[in-house]
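Input structure tokens:
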């Protein structure tokens, strides 16, 4: 990530309604693997940082007494609350705050998760805060996954035509992409590990509507970036995807790094 980029509230502006349909849901096997690896038994609390519309919070909620989803985007949290109600999941709490405000009086947690969110944060600050929020024996889980794949080369080409060659992100841009090297950040915050578990990649089939929603679910092509040209972009995108009705893609494997507050 470049030094010039700074987070701003428009990062995913307008994306929330598209996210649940445009992103592929995590497989049920992921929640099972979490429960097996960590011996989850319905007790304790979960904190999902940068939870979006509850993509990981909701599948894991059944393994805890309470699941707390925290996000800086109020519209994402509204989607999360709607999805929780639709699924009859009643043990979730949604907190509208930036991760940099932690611990924010939220108390202690058995597990804290980051799923496709850590790279947007002030990582040293947030990692240190999270370590202090974990109960004795608690675990921080970093989920490496992709729930979206650009299934046709026309998508990236068209986004560049409308938004330019440099990746957009909120009001700024990310010419070098998002930051990596999170292992060093966790270790500097005092975590031990990681211990990793993995799930194999999946082949998914997506409709045109799901593909379009997926494009608008991305920070690099969020609806607000197109301004008054948004409808024109969508029409052009659908024309370039035609005449196909579905697209098949292989998602990469899911890897979860478990970081501990003491040696394991």
């Amino acid at each position: 990530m470049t030094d010039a980029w700074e987070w701003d509230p428009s990062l995913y502006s307008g994306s929330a309604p598209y996210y649940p349909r445009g992103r592929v849901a995590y497989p049920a096997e992921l929640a099972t693997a979490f429960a097996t690896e960590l011996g989850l038994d319905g007790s304790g609390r979960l904190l999902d940082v940068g939870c979006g519309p509850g993509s990981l919070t909701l599948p894991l909620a059944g393994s805890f007494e309470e699941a707390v989803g925290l996000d800086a985007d109020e519209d994402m949290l509204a989607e999360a609350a709607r999805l929780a109600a639709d699924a009859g999941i009643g043990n979730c709490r949604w907190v509208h705050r930036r991760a940099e405000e932690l611990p924010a009086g939220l108390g202690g947690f058995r597990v804290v998760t980051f799923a496709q969110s850590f790279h947007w944060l002030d990582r040293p600050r947030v990692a240190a805060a999270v370590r202090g929020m974990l109960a004795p024996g608690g675990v921080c889980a970093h989920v490496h996954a992709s729930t979206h794949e650009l299934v046709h080369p026309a998508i990236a080409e068209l986004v560049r035509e409308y938004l330019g060659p440099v990746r957009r992100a909120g009001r700024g841009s990310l010419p070098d992409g998002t930051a990596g090297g999170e292992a060093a950040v966790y270790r500097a915050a005092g975590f031990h590990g990681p211990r990793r578990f993995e799930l194999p990649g999946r082949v998914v089939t997506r409709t045109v509507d799901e593909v379009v929603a997926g494009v608008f679910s991305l920070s690099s092509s969020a609806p607000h970036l197109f301004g008054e040209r948004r409808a024109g972009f969508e029409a052009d995108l659908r024309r370039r995807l035609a005449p196909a009705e579905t697209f098949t893609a292989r998602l990469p494997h899911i890897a979860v790094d478990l970081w501990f507050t003491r040696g394991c």
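The mean pLDDT is 95. The chain is about 30% helix and 25% strand.
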